[in-house]
From TrEMBL:
<comment type="similarity">
    <text>Belongs to the prokaryotic/mitochondrial release factor family.</text>
</comment>
<keyword id="KW-0378">Hydrolase</keyword>
<dbReference type="GO" id="GO:0003747">
    <property type="term" value="F:translation release factor activity"/>
</dbReference>
<dbReference type="InterPro" id="IPR045853">
    <property type="entry name" value="Pep_chain_release_fac_I_sf"/>
</dbReference>
<feature type="region of interest" description="Disordered">
    <location>
        <begin position="108"/>
        <end position="138"/>
    </location>
</feature>
<feature type="compositionally biased region" description="Basic and acidic residues">
    <location>
        <begin position="116"/>
        <end position="132"/>
    </location>
</feature>
<dbReference type="GO" id="GO:0004045">
    <property type="term" value="F:peptidyl-tRNA hydrolase activity"/>
</dbReference>
<dbReference type="GO" id="GO:0043022">
    <property type="term" value="F:ribosome binding"/>
</dbReference>
<feature type="domain" description="Prokaryotic-type class I peptide chain release factors">
    <location>
        <begin position="22"/>
        <end position="38"/>
    </location>
</feature>
<dbReference type="InterPro" id="IPR000352">
    <property type="entry name" value="Pep_chain_release_fac_I"/>
</dbReference>
<dbReference type="Pfam" id="PF00472">
    <property type="entry name" value="RF-1"/>
</dbReference>
<protein>
    <submittedName>
        <fullName>Aminoacyl-tRNA hydrolase</fullName>
    </submittedName>
</protein>
<dbReference type="GO" id="GO:0072344">
    <property type="term" value="P:rescue of stalled ribosome"/>
</dbReference>
Length: 138
């Protein structure tokens, strides 16, 4: 079943591969027998559903989860249920793509007002006078 991120973006099944591995941590004998942890791999670079600027932002957001061949790897071993770990991994991927869809606002440089510049310089001069008066007498 395809993963729906937004109304416009849907990730197809061929773009996602899931591998189930044995989980670490507590769980008793169950942890040694059952592969409950999920390793979700999304081929982001080859995805036809994502525009180029979104892929660029996604790469920055993914950080260490981004592989050299342009895939995102998400590992989840939070619960003892394989199905729940799979849901969590798919939701994390969808959330990551949603974050990448948001275009950051451009920063507009601001200039200090003439009054604030004059006040700053006046304060500096006054401070300099105070320091100058601390010198040795005659």
């Amino acid at each position: 079943m395809p993963l729906t991120v937004t109304d416009q973006i849907e990730i197809a099944d061929w773009e996602i591969t899931e591998q189930f591995v044995r989980s670490s941590g507590p769980g008793g004998q169950n942890v040694n027998k059952v592969s409950t942890a999920v390793e979700l791999r999304f081929e982001a670079e080859r995805s036809p559903n994502l525009p180029a600027p979104v892929k660029t932002r996604l790469r920055r957001l993914a950080g260490r989860r981004w592989t050299k061949d342009g895939a995102i790897v998400i590992q989840v071993e939070e619960t003892r249920s394989q199905a729940r770990n799979r849901e969590i991994a798919r939701e994390r991927l969808a959330e990551l793509v949603r974050k990448a869809l948001v275009v950051p606002k451009r920063r507009v440089k601001t200039k200090p007002t003439k009054g604030s510049v004059e006040r700053r310089i006046k304060a500096k001069k006054e401070r300099g006078e105070v320091k100058k008066l601390r010198g040795k007498v005659g």
